[in-house]
Amino acid sequence: MLKKLFREMLVTQIVSTMTVMLCMLIDSIMIGRFLGVDSMSAYGFATPLLLVFAAFGSMISAGIQVVCGKAIGNGDRGATNACYTAAMTLTAAVSAVGLLLVFILIDPLTTLLGAGAPSPVNPVFDLTKRYILGFIVGAPAFLCAQIMVPFLQLSGKRTRLIVAVAAMTAADVLFDLLNVFVFRGGTLGMGLASSLSYYIAFVIGILYFFKKDCMFRLRFRLLHRRVFRDLLSYGVPTIVNQISTVLLVFLLNRLLSATSEGTDAVAAYSVISTVCNICYCFGTGIGSVAMMLASLFYTDRDARSIRKLVRLTMRWAIVLDLAVTAIGAAAAVPLVRLFLGRSGNVVAIAAYGLRLVVLSLVPSSLNSSLKNYYQGVNRIPFAEVISALQNFAFPALFAFVLSRFIGITGIWLGFLCGETATLLTVSIVVWKHYGRVSLSADAYSMLDPSFGTPAECCLECSIQSREDVVAASEKAVAFCRAHGLSHRESMLIGLSLEEMAINIVQYGFSADRKKHHINVRLVLEGDNRVLRIRDDCVHFDPVHYMELREASDPSAHFGIRTVMKTAKEANYQNSLGWNTLTLIF
């Protein structure tokens, strides 16, 4: 069931991660093909500012994934709503402050980004300023689109995410073409086209949050300083990651400007970074799924699922990015020509650089995936260090040193050397914690030996048929008896499992033509007697269902009614497309 969920979430997360990058990619292609090299350089100089806004959105998004994941794991609906309210409040505040500062400081900001001073002989300054002004109008929608992604993932609304991204992409292409061939608005029009397309994605996504079945509600009375602190603290590694990226882009623009190729080199780097930003979405998507699920399993103290998650994460990171590396290297020239047409020297520089930079994708994906996973399991300082090393310290160091010996080639190789050095550093820390050199998921999970429920206190079963239900019930009774529970108590737990699982098989499995699974986890540790039943069938809340029918015919739904009265506490959560019923006896 975890493998199936991981695949489903991964596809959606990769596509939704591209929300930030797709408009930038489309703008880059349109600018390079129709507006010329100066406009492409202007876009490159504006990129660090766009990444600053993306950094704040990513920070809040990462905080949501961990804080909401933990709240859902604990079955705390109040904490879930508090997280949603705090995230929306933070996004509104960041949008307002960002808009105000950019409009007030637009001229010095454009110069600071490297576009030079305003001058009749410096067209790049005005082109950069115009793109920033067009883009900044859409900053609120840009940020909201980012933070809606984890909320829609957690609520299992993955189709809505894909529709929003598809609509945004189509709209941006249409608006860019209108700008180029009809309105002729230059870089200002390109920025406005992106802004409009972000608002389209925002509207499609936000409509879910007004539905009656939405699991998130604005509850300002639940806001507390602790909620904001948790959101920000869990998002710090992501902001370190994004700010490091901004600093790296800024530094490399300066290094490239100082080479003999000058503006051509900066334009080439704009193309390379845009293509690679799309390629990095695979590693970022894997990492986001890992963070979300890790926070949920960590709260459940489910060491087995965490190790399985780490194994899946590393495997997908290697397989996907090997394929992306091969495609990027083989298709470097046509990819670059998408942006630059056949503009001789710039195409040659960009294609050569792209072939070298994509070699860093596999170690980059592993670093990003592990970093996000460590955020989910509360190893925040370690994730922060990985972010700084991966996105600035090592690539900048290698680019600076190697460029002194082999010029631009050294700058491109800085990415591969930097990512590899980061991965080696992570591995050394992992091996030191584990006590020996190992490439196992057990080692890279970095769980303390005492973490989780002892294996002898936990029974786990997978159910796919009625026969499996009976076998699981019998195992549960025997497991309870072996742990000293009375015959009556053991039978009540076994029968509760059987009743609820049979109900899922009978009504949930036949609701559609998909293959479904039920996972059962019984924990007997000390005085704790916890039965968790999780399935991937249609949404059904037995707790609320019985509350609504308490006063109706007492003989109806006798089995479910008996289970709810037998359990000391019953809690239901629907998240990530899973129904999770937790019974405490």
Q: Would you mind describing this structure in some detail?
A:
With 585 residues, the protein is α+β, with helices and mostly antiparallel strands. Helix content is 75%, strand content 6%. It has helices at 2-35, 37-74, 77-104, 106-115, 123-136, 139-154, 158-183, 186-206, 225-257, 263-300, 303-330, 332-340, 344-357, 361-376, 380-406, 408-434, 441-445, 466-482, 487-508, 542-548, 558-566, and strands spanning 458-463, 518-525, 528-535, 569-575, 578-584. Strands 1-2-3-5-4 form a five-stranded antiparallel sheet, covered by helices on one side. The radius of gyration is 26 Å and the shape is elongated. It starts with a helix and ends with a strand.
Backbone structural class: alpha+beta
Rg, nearest Å: 26 Å
Largest sheet at a glance?
Answer: 5 strands, antiparallel
Tell me roughly what share of residues is in helical segments.
over 70%
Query: Which regions contain 5 or more consecutive residues with pLDDT less than 50?
Result: none
- Identify the strand order in the major beta sheet: 1-2-3-5-4
